[in-house]
Amino acid sequence: MHPRLVLAGRSNLAGSFAKLLAAATIAIVPAGAVLQATAPAAQAYPTSSWEIGAGSEKTKGTITWYNRSVQFNGSVRAAGNEMVAIVTTEPFGEPHPQCSESKPFTAPPYTTALVTWLTQCNVVGGFREVSVELYRGEEFEKVGPTAYCSRNIIPYCEYY
Q1: If you placed Cys at 129, which of 13, 29, 150, 153 could pair as Cys (CB 3.0 to 4.6 Å)?
Q2: Number of helices and strands in the chain (H, E)
Q3: CA dihedral 10, 14, 20, 21 (to 10 degrees)
Q4: Dist CA 91 CA 127 (whole Å)
Q5: Based on the domain organization, do 67 and 133 belong to the same domain?
Q6: Cβ–Cβ < 8 Å for 91, 128
Q7: pLDDT (tens digit, 9 = 90+) per residue, 65-76?
Q8: DSSP H/E element including 131
Q9: Whether the model pTM is above 0.90
Q10: 103 by DSSP, 3-state: which?
Q11: Which class for 36: exposed (0-12), middle (13-18), buried (19 or more C-beta within 10 A)?
Q12: Same domain, 94 and 154
């Protein structure tokens, strides 16, 4: 049986075939055109996330663990009192003065402040763990638990 006769008896199939043929015709690449393959995406670095506090008094964000540095991206939100998030880093293995740091991020009352910090630890293993704490007001009252985040095979944060 002739293919044209089979398609003619099935109007839906004939219409689908015509659309497919039209799409294939459009997809033909002209001679001499250079095709460029897209590069594979770079391997993502491991991350962990923290969140301390609730409502309008909290800090939350993400930690990206690089080979010998760590990136913090997040926010501190304050209601009626100033809020301070303190981020502390610790190196892998023995304590190292260039890698043990604490940095405060302050949000004045009724604002949200960004937490953005990239810090390096140029020792074998890089950073081992970081902690994030949240404090309220001039009295420096601790809010919620401390987030202890560690870079293991699967990075994680635990709270206590």
Answers
A1: 150
A2: 2, 9
A3: 150
A4: 4
A5: yes
A6: yes
A7: 998 999 999 999
A8: strand 127-136
A9: no
A10: strand
A11: exposed
A12: yes
Q: Which amino acid is at 99?
A: C
**Is 59 in the same domain as 20?**
no
How far is CA 39 from its chain centroid? 21
Same domain, 106 and 154: yes
Instruction: For CA atoms 138, 139, 141, 147, give the dihedral sign.
Output: positive
Answer yes or no: is 89 within a domain: yes
Closest CA to 111 of 83, 151, 78: 78
Cβ-defined contacts of 35-43 (< 8 Å, 24+): none
| 143 closest CA partner among 89, 117, 103, 107 | 107
Joined together, the tokens standing for residue 39 give: 């590069």
| Residues 53-68, mean pLDDT to the nearest whole number | 94
For residue 151, what are the domain limits? Answer: 47-159
Rounded Cα distance, 160 and 146, in Å: 5
Does residue 137 form part of some domain? yes
Q: Which two tokens stand for residue 47?
A: 């991350």
Q: Indicate whether 71 and 139 sit together in one domain.
A: yes
**Window from 31-40, 55-64, 116-125, 145-154 with minimum mean pLDDT:** 31-40
